[in-house]
Amino acid sequence: MQFNDLTHQYSPQANRDSAYLVLHGISEGISSDFIQRIYKGLANRGETVLAFNWPYLDAGGEPSKDLVDEQAALQLATDFLHSEGYTQLHIAAKSLGGIVASRWLQQHNDLGVDVAILGYVIGDVTTASLTDKLRLVVQGERDRFGNGEAVQSELESHNITATVIEIADADHSYRNQAGEPAYQQEAVKKLLSAY
Questions:
Q1: What's the mean pLDDT in 23-42?
Q2: CB of 102 within 8 A of CB of 127?
Q3: Which percentage of the chain shows pLDDT scores above 70?
Q4: At CA 140, angle to CA 138 and CA 144, rounded to 5?
Q5: Alpha-helical runs (H) found in 12-164
Q6: 36-46: b or e for each residue (b if 16 or more CB lie within 10 Å)?
Q7: Does CATH place domain 3-194 in 1.10.10.10?
Q8: 10 Å Cβ neighbour count for 189?
C-alpha cells in the first residue's frame, strides 16, 4: 500500500513547519459533515491539513485485527507529511482515530506529535502511550464510553495532564437525545479554539 492508494484530502500551506492530520471515526470517512467541519476549519485558519480514509472504509470492510492496517495507513500519512517538510504533527482524531493514534504512538513516541481526541474511548485508547502527547479531549456528557469526568480520571491514573472539555447533553457523536447532530459544530469550535 502506498500513500496515494488512500482516499485523501490535502491542503498544504507554504512556510509552515507543522501540519494537522485529521483521523475519522469507525463509520464515517473524510467526506462526513463532521470531519469536513474540522478539515475546513483548520484549512480556513491557514493550517496545512491532511485527512484520509482508513483502508477498510474504501474496501467496504471492517477495521483490521489489532488495527494493524490502520496503523500502517497512519504511518504512510505521517511519512508523507515528513517528506513534505513538516516536522511537527498535530493529530485531531475522532473516536477510532484516537485508538489508532494511541496504538501507533506505542511504536513512534519519539516523533514531534501531539494529539487531540474527540470522543475518547476509555478501555480501547492506549492511554499510557499518550503521556506528553495528549493535549485535548472533547467529550460528550452522555458519551457511552464515559463523560468528561471519567476521561479526566482515566488520564489522572496515568499522570497525563490534558485539557478535557465536556459538551453538555452530547453523546459520543455529539448528538442530542433525539439523535440529531446538534452539538457537532460546538465540538469543532471547542477543538479549533483550544488546538
A1: 96
A2: yes
A3: 100
A4: 120
A5: 33-44, 55-59, 68-83, 96-105, 148-156
A6: ebbbebbbeee
A7: no
A8: 13
In the block, residue with C-alpha cell 490502520? 70
Q: Are 156 and 148 in contact (CB under 8 A)?
A: no
Residue 72 and residue 52: Cα distance in Å, rounded? 12
Domain segments of the chain: what residues?
A: 3-194
Q: Is the pLDDT of residue 141 over 80?
A: yes
- CA pair distance 60, 131, nearest whole angstrom: 34
Reference 95, options 168, 29, 48; nearest CA is 29
Task: Please name every residue paired with 27 in a beta bridge, in sequence order, or none if there are none.
Answer: none
Can you tell me the distance from the alpha carbon of 85 to that of 62, in angstroms, rounded to the nearest whole number? 33
pTM value surpassing 0.85: yes
- Mean of pLDDT values over 168-180: 98
